[in-house]
Amino acid sequence: MGSIESDTERWVKRVLQQGTAYLWEDEVPVSIACHVGITLNGARISIVYTPPEYRRKGYACACVAALSQTLLNQGNRYCFLFTDLANPTSNHIYQEIGYQPVGDWDNYSFV
Predict the structure, then answer these.
(1) pLDDT at residue 5 above 60?
(2) Residue 92 to residues 7, 18, 27, 47: CA-CA distances in angstroms?
(3) pTM summary value
């Protein structure tokens, strides 16, 4: 079993103090999502994580949905995020709560 490094603890404390992280709790923290950028009309969500022992229980879905609604309630017209097309779980979760795919992103490296 792993342990939490002190740098990770400082990061979590900082993003919680800044108000950029949203924790979903079920007696203990079970999922986290962050908003990492605000545009003129929208807010970007990133760093969605649920520890393995809490996965497949709907926590990430609830966390992202609640954060998205909070950001919309703050006056953002929309929320957006990037997801890995090869990850059917996260894609299903995001579409289940109302996100729609709008484009693909490719990385190219010229050597």
Answers:
(1) no
(2) 32, 29, 26, 17
(3) 0.81
